Batch of 2 targets.
Target 1
Amino acid sequence: MMAEPTSSTALAVTATAGVGIAAMLPWIDANALMGAVLGAALVAYTKKELKPWQRFAALMFSALVGYLMSGEVVAQTPLTESGTGGFLGAIIIVPLALKLMLQVDRLDLNAILAAIKRGTGG
């Protein structure tokens, strides 16, 4: 199921206007924000099975995570620009966190504790 062209256009206009307004605030890192929004737009664009409001929520969440993670991505990698860090944060952190959540749901803590107990001879 494809999204309606008008809803995709409205989403893009809203995101662009939001970035433009936020970039005027002095405490906002405009490069990180733009990178995060571009990465989040890529994430939202690939979620074709979602309704328009769900895609917008995915865009906002990914953009927020990308913006918040941009500093850490720059600090922990050879990247030097916060825009690239925001982009990578938006497209990598959220899917990675979702996969990690699925693995945690499948985790059998009793089996792990039993294996540790057998390994220590206890």
Note: The CA atoms of residues 18 and 106 lie 39 Å apart.
Target 2
Amino acid sequence: MLHHVTAHWRTNYVTLDLDTTELVGMFDKRPFFLLVGIEAPMMLRWTRAKARLDATASDARDTLDLASFVAHDDRIMYGTTHADDEDTQNLAKDVSNLLFLHQSGSLISTSMPSGNGALAALLSRSQLRIANTMGTLPELYAHLDSLSLTSMHRLRPTWDAYFVSLCSLASLRSNCMKRRVGAVITGVMEVVYQLEYSMDDRSAQIFAEAGVVFRKYEPSF
């Protein structure tokens, strides 16, 4: 899959098969990859799961109580097992006090389970996290459409967003007791040419997306 989407990176693909940190790590190195995490409050998820089970259950005994749902959710989210479970091999130790650099430039302290397939570990690596509190699927789809998930700005920040991130990163070195501030000095990226300059349309598009300005050299004398 990785080789295919790399060769066809201008085509949009959606997959649900990246369910381990190793797989996500392989795709995360590609500049066209966006990991989206969708979550919802536990009580809302339990209500939805119970409604689906009640609609398909053929036996009145096929019910879902909250305690069973929470235990199942813990196994998926954190890779943990409970004392009354027979299988205790997937018990994941908690790795605390880890610092991650958010896209905004700020450092985030989080506690991430070491379980390879724990959903919490995958959610912590998501570039975009969406709270699905919508009542119907059409409402969720409409919300996803409003987010412009295929916009290149989600994969490659604009120059303004890039420099603001550098400001946030620089502010982390501040030792002022009253306020953390950061600043960077920027300028227009220019390619100056003297006579004539020509390029194919593809190259011109790449420079345009990078914000590079072409300017012909004009002597001041």
Note: The first helix runs from residue 2 to 7.
